[in-house]
Amino acid sequence: MGKKRKVTVITGFLGSGKTTLLTHLLKGPSLKNTAVLVNEFGKVGLDHHLLRRIDERTLLLGGGCLCCSVREDLVNALRELLDNDHRGDIEPLERIVIETSGLADPAPILFTVLTDSVLQHHLTVDQVIVTVDAVNGQFHLDRQNESVKQVAAADKIIITKTDMASENEVELLASRLLTINPSAEIIKSIHGNIDNHQLFAPNEKVKSTPLISLVESNSFQGKHAPAARSISLTFDQPLDWSAFGLWLSMLLHARGEEILRVKGMIDVGEDGPVMLNGVQHIIHPPEHLDEWSDEDKRSHIVFIMRSIDPEQILSSLHAFQNILGSRASIREPVEVL
Question: What is the rounded CA–CA span in Å between residue 98 and residue 111?
Fold first, then answer.
């Protein structure tokens, strides 16, 4: 089997600049071997040779939650692209960019790619990129659950329309976004202008805060949504990978709909760490790296949760500490933002 093609998901709330960003990207030569799946042709308005339109038809599996649902439209579109690539009808395919609608939860897209019997062998989800409007971002985070879910799922967050907001407003928004998702990389943009290499470069940011932090976010404190919190943990000793996998599976089985994001770099006693990446119930295949990127070889894990007290996560880990091989500790006091 050849090298897997990368899948990049671009999402963001209505009017946050997804299409502007995509239009800018398509003008550059770096997307020559990239297929782009969009919801509406007209908004992009570019003659890209691998541009496809998709309708967001979601098939909810029996007894499942929304995050564990299959985007049947996406399955068909991606399989068609793979068939065309295999037959040589298109340029060799290296990457697929999927632009979602403003109200889309990224979780069903990830679930579709990672669980389909064909797609999982040919595609790998590279990263989720989320656009947030510098002018209206705070309002969307206060009032729209979808906006917070998108931010929680992000590997990179593009703050758009920074020319239309004050520097202080942009910095306050950036701070809030990092409170929701400490592992995300923040990039500021005007008119969708951004360096393609920076956008598609891997984000391995997990060590988001010094030592261990516990932060309660006010991201859901608007009129319509429950609380969201993030917790960043560090383990000083190597973890037993099998035991940790068992603990995480039990947690996601019991509370997966409330775990918006989990991301980590885990020391399992080998030369390099294991990269952990998940959205709600959906965990990407763990990636075993050959070496550490710096001298800090401790395990770092970030959880972004809704309606779960972070102390419950800590207590659960402590209950497993004898088989995990390491104990998570936490710095007090709890900071309420």
Answer: 14
Strands 299-306 and 259-266: what pairing? antiparallel
Residues whose CB is less than 8 angstroms from the CB of residue 311 and which lie 6 or more positions away in sequence, other chains included: none
Residue 30: DSSP 8-state:
G
Q: Is the pTM of this model over 0.70?
A: yes
What is the Cα–Cα distance from 215 to 315, expressed in whole angstroms?
Answer: 16
Q: Tokens for 154, please give them.
A: 């992000």
Q: Which residues have CB under 8 Å from 306's CB, separation 6+? A: 220, 226, 227, 228, 229, 258, 260
Q: Which residue has the tokens 């998940």?
A: 278
Helix H or strand E encompassing 80: helix 72-87
Non-local (6+) Cβ contacts of 257 within 8 A are 65, 67, 280, 281
Ordered domains of the chain (ranges, CATH): 5-200 (3.40.50.300), 213-336 (3.30.1220.10)
Beta strands in the chain (DSSP E): 5-12, 34-38, 51-53, 58-60, 69-71, 95-99, 123-133, 156-160, 185-188, 213-217, 228-235, 259-266, 274-279, 282-283, 287-288, 299-306, 328-329, 335-336
End-to-end CA distance of the chain: 49
Residue environment code for 122-145, b if the CB has 16+ CB neighbours within 10 A, otherwise e: bbbbbbbbbbbbbbbbbebbbebb
> Six-digit token pair at 83?
């068939």
Tens digit of each residue's pLDDT, the chain (337 residues): 568 999 999 998 888 888 788 878 777 777 778 888 876 544 444 444 445 544 444 343 333 444 455 577 788 888 988 998 899 888 888 888 888 876 677 888 888 888 888 999 999 998 999 999 999 999 988 888 888 889 998 999 999 999 999 999 999 999 999 988 888 999 998 877 788 788 888 766 654 443 333 333 443 344 434 457 778 888 888 888 888 888 888 888 888 778 888 888 899 989 999 988 888 777 888 888 888 888 888 888 888 887 788 778 888 887 877 777 666 654 332 333 3
